[in-house]
Design brief:
- With about 300 residues, the protein is an all-alpha fold.
- It has helices at about 1-5, 15-30, 30-45, 55-90, 95-100, 105-150, 155-165, 170-195, 200-225, 230-245, 255-260, 265-290.
- α9 (about 200-225) packs across α10 (about 230-245).
- It is globular, with a radius of gyration of 23 Å.
- The two termini are about 20 Å apart.
């Protein structure tokens, strides 16, 4: 935090935010629980390469399903656990009071903390993506070698093209980016909860509940709206739920990638815009709560 002490006071200072974000990232990296979660996720992705011997298309589908699913779950866990502990730990260590005693606005403090978490998610998801690509490439080369060995010479080219078409698709990168936005969204919501929650355990529990609500709310909404007896109060309630809790099912592009379907550009842009909007709204709501919080 030495950079905070020498930075001249300004109404908004990117250098102060950068210093807080860097310090937050270092603190999170030092926590062994995040190493455990990251290693566990990497092991799951790596073990997916040793699935039962199926046709090459089924193998790649299982590999992508397991790997992308693990990336989604563990990036969400990292986001929730990391963010839930930020404010309570700073208050317990009295780091928060030291920072705010300097010319550091609460807005910059919260923004730096959130950027630190987002950087951690980016690093973790990048490592998982690299391992996923390595495993996918290894499986592709193995299948191509078998195709060259087992197929007649006039059928090798077609078999190799089919294997390559089933391995790396244009939808992989958008899917991973959406997984990142989903985790970032959950981190921003957890930050909002931590500004008024009584403990980090309560924050984690509520975040898990909201995660579940976010995945089932589209199903419940369709079920209720399909009923002919739905009244105005129910519609208002559904609208409030949709407004307060993000539709996390909209961030699930794994099924399309596994099925080999291309993710339309407009769908990706709409999903990305939805994620960025929720992250922004949750952050400013967190700042509104934190600005009036007595410390």
């Amino acid at each position: 935090m030495s950079e905070l002490a020498v930075t001249p006071h300004r109404a908004f200072s990117p250098s102060r935010i950068r210093a807080i974000a860097a310090n937050t990232l270092l603190e999170l990296i030092r926590l062994k629980v995040f190493y455990f979660l990251l290693v566990f996720a990497l092991l799951i992705i790596g073990s997916s390469a040793f699935t039962a011997k199926l046709g090459f298309q089924e193998q790649f589908q299982v590999l992508k399903d397991v790997s992308l699913g693990a990336m989604s779950i563990f990036s969400w866990l990292l986001a929730v656990l990391a963010t839930a502990m930020l404010l309570p730990k700073d208050i317990e260590d009295r780091t928060l009071y030291t920072i705010l005693a300097k010319p550091v606005p609460r807005f910059e403090y919260l923004l730096g903390k959130l950027l630190g978490v987002l950087t951690l998610l980016f690093v973790a998801l990048s490592l998982m993506s690299v391992l996923f690509v390595i495993v996918l490439y290894w499986r592709e080369r193995s299948e191509i070698a078998e195709a060259v060995r087992d197929n007649p010479a006039d059928q090798v080219a077609a078999a190799v093209d089919a294997i390559r078409a089933a391995t790396f698709t244009k939808s992989l990168l958008p899917c991973i980016l959406v997984i990142y936005l989903k985790a970032a969204l959950c981190g921003a919501f957890t930050l909002l909860l931590s500004t008024f929650a009584t403990s980090w355990i309560f924050t984690i529990i509520v975040s898990v509940v909201v995660y579940l609500i976010g995945h089932v709310q589209p199903i419940a909404r369709e079920y209720w709206l399909a009923s002919t007896t739905v009244g105005a109060p129910t519609k208002i309630f559904l609208a409030l739920v949709s407004l307060l809790f993000p539709d996390l099912a909209a961030f699930n592009l794994v099924d399309d990638v596994v099925a080999g379907n291309a993710v339309a550009l407009d769908l990706f842009l709409k999903t990305a815009a939805l994620g960025v909007t929720y992250i922004t709204v949750y952050f400013f709501a967190a700042y509104f709560m934190f600005s009036d919080k007595e410390l």
